[in-house]
TrEMBL record:
This is Alpha/Beta hydrolase fold protein. The keyword Zinc does not apply. It comes from Artemisia annua (Sweet wormwood). The chain crosses the membrane at residues 55-73. Residues 122-385 form the AB hydrolase-1 domain. It comes from the Eukaryota. One of its GO terms (molecular function) is hydrolase activity. Keywords: Hydrolase, Membrane, Transmembrane, Transmembrane helix.
């Protein structure tokens, strides 16, 4: 395509003419706009008033946020415990020993007299229970006498009439039991037994005071789903079988322990099922409970119901949640056999229909720790140890010379 010089000159001329016209037009409009009336000038120079409604709303929002923070802080702080024997606390009704740090541990004794005993057992109760929740108290008197069994059942710190321990850890309770054994003259070595959350504490005895143990039995021991060496697929499957309310309560205890008290006392979401009185008991458990309650007199029933939270809920059940499902400084899966020369034995007992403690995880633990002797009761629920004859079988296995 050919473009001659005249065409280019015409386009340039047209462009200059257009720009010149546009410039004049803009200047003309600008001049017109610059002519502002006196009234408009006065209104333009006035300062605009701030929107008072926005300021009030902001103040109200800040006040609401401050009030909410104050309310949340207050509801997250538990009330102080009512220590037994203190001026405003409940009375002391059972024997206690005094530890080096000034705290007291409450206990009750059963079996043959201590001085005549062949075997001495320290029993540790379960979650939201007390020293009176002891399956060995239902053992056959003939078996107890034959084996020469003496049992001291204790209240864990904050439960029953044992003083709270605000510094309680997985390790500290094991050292409390060792000191109690010394003060009670149980000898250089003794047996330990625990049920459910009390069974979980036996792992700490095996870790921190194995040199003091003659044997140990864990009865339906609670499991911490965050122990690192449990297989993820097994823990996820077992955790999913727990109720939604228990899943959330355990998550809070593990990840946000400072909010455990608030979570279990607020009314928006359900709390831990055992705390609110709706545990996942199956038919075998309900049958056992019916028989146990039916055989109790009024005083026994009252003690079993009132003693666990006698000094308040935080230092008993809520601190229990934080420790049992919190971060441990050791993994039971790494424990070594405390009795390499077979001078003692460690046993786990489970019911295969336990809806509270997952049997699948117990089977795995027993399989991995080959030195543990595993016993599974067919048709047994969580409370199987309180069924007729079961505590006799547990004692026989634990105290058998073959073991």
């Amino acid at each position: 395509m050919t473009i001659n010089k005249s065409t280019i000159a015409f386009q340039q001329s047209t462009r200059v003419t257009f720009l010149s016209s546009s410039s004049k037009l803009t200047m003309s409009q600008s001049g017109a706009n610059n002519k502002i009336s006196a009234g408009a000038a006065r209104s333009h120079t006035r300062k605009s008033k701030p929107d008072s409604s926005f300021g009030i709303l902001r103040i109200l929002l800040l006040a609401f946020f401050a009030a909410f923070c104050a309310w949340a802080y207050q509801t997250a702080i538990p009330p102080p415990p009512k220590t037994c024997g203190s001026p405003n606390g409940p009375p002391v009704t059972s024997p206690r020993i005094k530890l080096r740090d000034g705290r007291h541990i409450s206990y009750t004794e059963s079996g043959v007299p201590k001085d005549e005993a062949k075997s001495k057992i320290v029993y540790v109760h379960c979650f939201d229970c007390c020293k009176y929740h002891n399956p060995f108290a239902f053992a056959s008197p003939d078996i107890v006498k034959e084996l020469g069994v003496y049992v001291i059942s204790i209240d864990r710190p904050g439960y029953g009439e044992s003083d709270p321990d605000p510094k309680r850890t997985v390790k500290s309770f094991a050292l409390d039991v060792e000191e109690l054994a010394d003060q009670m003259n149980l000898g250089q070595k003794f047996y330990v037994a625990g049920f459910s959350m009390g069974g979980q504490t036996v792992w700490s005895f095996l870790k921190y005071i194995p040199h003091r143990l003659e044997g140990a039995v864990l009865i339906a021991p609670a499991v911490n789903y965050w122990w690192p060496n449990l297989p993820l697929n097994l823990t996820n499957e077992a955790f999913s079988r727990q109720s939604k309310q228990d899943q959330w309560a355990m998550r809070v205890a593990h990840y946000l322990p400072r909010l455990t008290y608030w979570w279990n006392t607020q009314k928006w979401f359900p709390s831990f099922s055992i705390i609110d009185g709706t545990p996942a008991y199956g038919p075998p458990d309900i049958e056992i409970l019916t028989k146990l309650v039916g055989a109790m007199d009024q005083n026994q029933a009252h003690a079993l119901k009132s003693q666990p939270r006698l000094q308040g809920e935080f230092e008993s059940v809520y601190r229990d949640l934080n420790i049992g499902f919190g971060k441990w400084n050791f993994d039971p899966m790494y424990l070594e056999n405390p009795f390499p020369n077979k001078e003692g034995s460690v046993h786990i007992w489970m019911g295969d229909e336990d809806l509270i403690v997952p049997v699948t995880l117990q089977r795995y633990i027993a399989q991995e720790l080959g030195w543990i002797k595993y016993h599974e009761v067919t048709g047994g629920g969580h409370l199987f140890a309180f069924a007729n004859g079961v505590s006799d079988a547990i004692l026989k296995e634990l105290l058998s010379k073959q073991n």
